[in-house]
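Loading example: each entry is read as two labelled lines plus one structure line.
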Amino acid sequence: MRAAIIAIGSELLTPHRTDTNSLWLTERLNDLGIHVALKVAVPDDRESLCSTLKSLLSRFPLIISTGGLGPTEDDLTRESFAEALGLSLRFVPEIHEIITRRFEARQLPMSVNNRKQAMVLEGARWLRNSAGTAPGMYLDRSGITLVMLPGPPHEMRGIFIESVEPVLRSRSGGSRIYRRLLRATGLPESALDDQIAPIYAAYPEIETTILASVTGHEIHLATVAAESETADERLGELSRRIADRLGSNLFTTSGERLEAVLMGMLVQRGATVSAAESCTGGLVSKRLTDLAGSSTYFRGGVVAYDNAAKARLLGVPGALIAERGAVSSEVAEQMARGVRAKFESTFGMGITGIAGPGGGTEDKPVGLVYVSVADERDAVTRRLSLPGDRQHVRAWSAQIALDMLRRRLLSAS
Amino acid sequence: MRAAIIAIGSELLTPHRTDTNSLWLTERLNDLGIHVALKVAVPDDRESLCSTLKSLLSRFPLIISTGGLGPTEDDLTRESFAEALGLSLRFVPEIHEIITRRFEARQLPMSVNNRKQAMVLEGARWLRNSAGTAPGMYLDRSGITLVMLPGPPHEMRGIFIESVEPVLRSRSGGSRIYRRLLRATGLPESALDDQIAPIYAAYPEIETTILASVTGHEIHLATVAAESETADERLGELSRRIADRLGSNLFTTSGERLEAVLMGMLVQRGATVSAAESCTGGLVSKRLTDLAGSSTYFRGGVVAYDNAAKARLLGVPGALIAERGAVSSEVAEQMARGVRAKFESTFGMGITGIAGPGGGTEDKPVGLVYVSVADERDAVTRRLSLPGDRQHVRAWSAQIALDMLRRRLLSAS
């Protein structure tokens, strides 16, 4: 089945806001085997709403709208869709009752405008909203299904899961979309695609999408099937073949972020880590502590932005900085060793580089970064030449540092 | 003038990608006094493209499309729009010549498919693409202007600025949109709106939009005017009145981020700062180093996740931690004082709290955070009770810490 999504709200036509409800809805609809074939964003304007709905009615068997069901004068979805469909609105005392009780329970005054939220399209079922005042609506008419949902994401999601999904599932004949998410890092997106394209091409029934990302390229696998066994078998087989091909560049076949994979490896080994950062300015520590429970393996970090701090807090010899420069392989290694000793952790990470835009020289240009990972025996240090702006250099430096730790843990196991 | 934007690409109908080109385009069009009245995302599919364009032709005098102009079989915009308009495509040798030279200069083989990029709609002007192979197109026909741009953002932007904006500007009669961006922090969005709504209501010609954000609520002011003097005067007057009302909660009337405002204040005073973080895990240091030039005022930071590190690196007495707990006003203050001494900075910041989801107790629940800012004389410490999940608690803690430093600098001047 093909669906169209209408996102309603004048703010969605400004430079500042974009519709994101449709991403969530698309995933849920895909899971039911429903394909989203068009998305449109429309302002809270009667003529726009009316003509947009009319133009879609003849083209899509399922139309889902979000937004414009609030109590204010701006909210015109009900009236406009009624006009487009040539239907009247009827007052539903039960909805009015629910809204009234909601306000009473919160001891808030109810605006007379809320009365309009009790108006429902002739012939439509209204859908209870347990998180807000605006109920949704579900209308089957002349072979077309129209679903109207409120705009606030938690209200939209609640109504969809509770009242819309079950109906659509019963109509979808049991087929749904099964997915896998693999993530890889350590090679460019184009190289990744070159390596795995010959593999996934042999699975035409699985849709493979590669999305480049600094925190790990995502390989999305999706297939429509009537039974989970068939889908699992094919997805599992393709995942394994991709994993074999990518080797250590692949860090998960079950969707976790790199931080979560590291957490698993560190906890399993009872290992701890600390980080000494210069150009990344705390980003590595921040990522390592994004997850709850990070205190079991993250001991702490030092952001040593100036040379005195590198010497005082991390014990990097001033003479070494003077001789090799703060951005050097030797200093990165001493930072890693120093922070490891300071925090008494299993591993220490050191990152020093030139994030730019200023500070580069011919010898040491912007984008030059050294990353080192040390344990009690030795330190592995890499020299990076990263393209792009300050944010890009910082983000890639942090990613490569975390990935070096992962590879170190892999090889130690 | 009202415009519609068509974003073309099958990836835009998946759960993973959304159109963002239209946000940039909307801002540029608004600047020309053109209002975006509808946005639609369509897959690379001939029937969808054709019927979507047809449905918009009668409704909008300006239609801008992005995407689907590449050389591959997926790229169907040219053929589909030609069909919708009942126009033929003509081969333009000059474009073919340019594309051929582009491939030669890069010593890459040119695919026969690239020939189709030299096909232009009958009656359309083609628009040079200095960043890629796909030229844009500009067609005036029966009172409707159709502009076709490629999808890659830098190509789309280049062609728009170089070839589309000048034409649209000459047609817009000189009126354009003038903007101001103010930012405020330290009060909830609803309180902000309550305070300034009576003020901006007196300026009906200025559109005021408030967007809540953890890094500072944005107050967007926009007005259409024929002359910059008139616009500047009214925008300046409203900005000043909002600034007077919000007092120290407003941190800029010229759009800078909080980090940039802090940079200005610190540099002007020749002051430096360092940060000791527990629950924020490096986020404060990361934000302070987001901007180039931060090494002049940011001395460094310590992420002291465990108690031993708080004692060893920051000199927080172990007895104090044992007596008051790691999450306490006293420990936050000692962290601020300790990091200040360690880095010999003018100001030291200390943040300790419970980001959750675990780790809370009845006495010290998730969301309890202490933030302290110390200088050579004294320390100011705040106790926060923050709602929301781990990310939310961390982001708000960092924001309030930076804002406390700003207020400290304000009161010291």
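The first strand of chain A starts at residue 2 and ends at 8.
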